């Protein structure tokens, strides 16, 4: 009985300590004199590996999710003679929910796991320690550019996802199933608002970008430096980031659209 | 990876993202009203606003000229007061105009229908902050059924 209470306390203490560690890592990586000349090439390199290389999976899944939305929405809406509402249905569900959330989940799987594994291996092979030996702060040199790259890339990816998804819905709804072209766009325009829908979706993707990148970096930087530790950290990145995204999405949706 | 190619790829990535934002903003969202352009405000009091919501459209003959921006209760008798923001493009409505709350389709959303009134030398034009006095409330289905049953009972 007492052992159980003790293990509960140990777990709580460990998770609080983990949160504190993650916070300290982020603060020490980001706060400081900006050195644009040094950090710009590093940021470009990371933007490439985190953002550009994720583009293919984002575009393909966006297109298919938009097409599925178009197909499913059409079969339901046509029963009520309301197939003109297909446009707003596809656009609103992509802009408000699916765009930011699915992008964040894919991003956690595609880029977050890679970040964790890379940094974990750097730690295991003592590259981070060698950087410190050479008086280079690994937080500034390794963590900060990766964080900013994730933070800038993911909202862009979410925007691309939504745009491609809407086009996919257009392809299926208008080109294949024969919803009226003009009605599709005009009803969509009558129902989608800049501030309410596009901006709120963008804010969501900013929050998710922050959380997913932060979790990935923290798990890598504080992993157990063995092969088992790295594999656990990578798994834990994907699981924790996905859960955090889904939980936060509910909170954000309740705040924005509640 | 050559540094220049990396920068090119990242540049194209950012351009792609901005293009996506432009596509969403210009093609998917309504940019013609509510965000830009001069507007003015009109008020109307109703007995019952039914399912009218903020951001519901205000239409003249089916054409959207503005939106409902605020709904509140007003005065000693707590009458529903609707604040409408109308595009400045349409600023020549006369004092005799009337508003009614209509429903688009059988199950559709509710909106405000504005019917322009007649114009002669004695009527004035509605200006910013004016009240429209001739209003017709929303049809509430329960009230209709109640009246119908009541009139049946009298026969």
UniProtKB/TrEMBL annotation, chain A:
Keywords: Cell inner membrane, Cell membrane, Membrane, Transmembrane, Transmembrane helix, Transport. It is found in: Cell inner membrane. Its main location: membrane. The chain crosses the membrane at residues 12-31, 52-78, 156-178, 198-217, 238-257. It is a multi-pass membrane protein. GO terms for molecular function: phospholipid transporter activity. Signal peptide: none annotated. One of its GO terms (cellular component) is ATP-binding cassette (ABC) transporter complex. Part of the ABC transporter complex MlaFEDB, which is involved in a phospholipid transport pathway that maintains lipid asymmetry in the outer membrane by retrograde trafficking of phospholipids from the outer membrane to the inner membrane. Probably responsible for the translocation of the substrate across the membrane. Belongs to the MlaE permease family. The complex is composed of two ATP-binding proteins (MlaF), two transmembrane proteins (MlaE), two cytoplasmic solute-binding proteins (MlaB) and six periplasmic solute-binding proteins (MlaD). This is Intermembrane phospholipid transport system permease protein MlaE. It comes from Pseudidiomarina sediminum.
Automatic annotation (TrEMBL), chain B:
Keywords: Membrane, Transmembrane, Transmembrane helix. It comes from the Bacteria. InterPro entries: ABC_MlaD, Mce/MlaD, MlaD_Phospholipid_Transporter. Pfam families: MlaD (PF02470). GO terms for molecular function: phospholipid binding; phospholipid transporter activity. The chain crosses the membrane at residues 6-26. Residues 39-117 form the Mce/MlaD domain. The keyword Electron transport does not apply. This is Outer membrane lipid asymmetry maintenance protein MlaD. The lineage of its organism: Bacteria, Pseudomonadati, Pseudomonadota, Gammaproteobacteria, Alteromonadales.
């Amino acid at each position: 009985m007492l052992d159980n209470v003790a293990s509960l306390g140990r777990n709580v203490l460990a998770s609080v300590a983990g949160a504190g560690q993650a916070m300290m890592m982020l603060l020490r990586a980001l706060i400081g004199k900006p050195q644009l000349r040094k950090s710009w090439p590093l940021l470009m390199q990371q933007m490439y590996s985190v953002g550009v290389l994720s583009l293919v999976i984002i575009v393909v899944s966006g297109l298919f999710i938009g097409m599925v939305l178009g197909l499913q929405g059409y079969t339901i809406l046509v029963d009520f003679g309301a197939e003109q509402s297909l446009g707003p249905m596809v656009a609103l569900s992509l802009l408000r929910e699916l765009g930011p959330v699915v992008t964040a989940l894919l991003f956690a799987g595609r880029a977050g796991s890679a970040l964790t594994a890379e940094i974990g291996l750097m730690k295991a092979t003592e590259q981070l320690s060698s950087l410190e030996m050479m008086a280079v702060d690994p937080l500034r040199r390794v963590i900060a550019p990766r964080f900013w790259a994730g933070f800038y890339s993911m909202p862009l990816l979410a925007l691309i996802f939504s745009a491609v998804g809407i086009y996919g819905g257009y392809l299926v709804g208008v080109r294949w199933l024969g919803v009226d072209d003009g009605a599709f766009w005009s009803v969509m325009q009558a129902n989608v608002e800049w501030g309410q829908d596009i901006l709120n979706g963008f804010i969501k993707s900013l929050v998710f970008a922050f959380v997913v990148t932060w979790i990935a970096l923290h798990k890598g930087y504080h992993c157990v430096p063995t092969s088992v530790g790295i594999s656990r950290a990578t798994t834990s990145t994907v699981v924790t980031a996905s859960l955090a995204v889904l939980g936060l999405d509910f909170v954000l949706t309740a705040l924005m659209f509640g | 990876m050559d540094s220049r190619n990396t920068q090119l790829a990242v540049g194209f990535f950012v351009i792609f993202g901005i293009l996506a934002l432009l596509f969403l903003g210009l093609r998917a969202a309504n940019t013609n009203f509510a965000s830009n352009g001069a507007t003015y405000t009109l008020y109307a009091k109703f007995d019952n606003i039914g399912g009218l919501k903020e951001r519901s459209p205000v239409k003249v003959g089916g054409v959207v000229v503005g939106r409902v921006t605020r709904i509140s209760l007003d005065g000693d008798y707590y009458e529903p007061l609707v604040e409408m923001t109308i595009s400045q493009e349409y600023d020549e409505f006369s004092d005799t105009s009337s508003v009614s709350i209509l429903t688009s389709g059988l199950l559709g959303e509710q909106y405000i229908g504005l019917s322009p009134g007649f114009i002669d030398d004695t009527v004035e034009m509605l200006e910013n902050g004016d009240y429209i006095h001739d209003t017709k409330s929303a049809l509430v289905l329960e009230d209709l059924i109640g009246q119908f049953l009541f009139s049946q009972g009298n026969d």
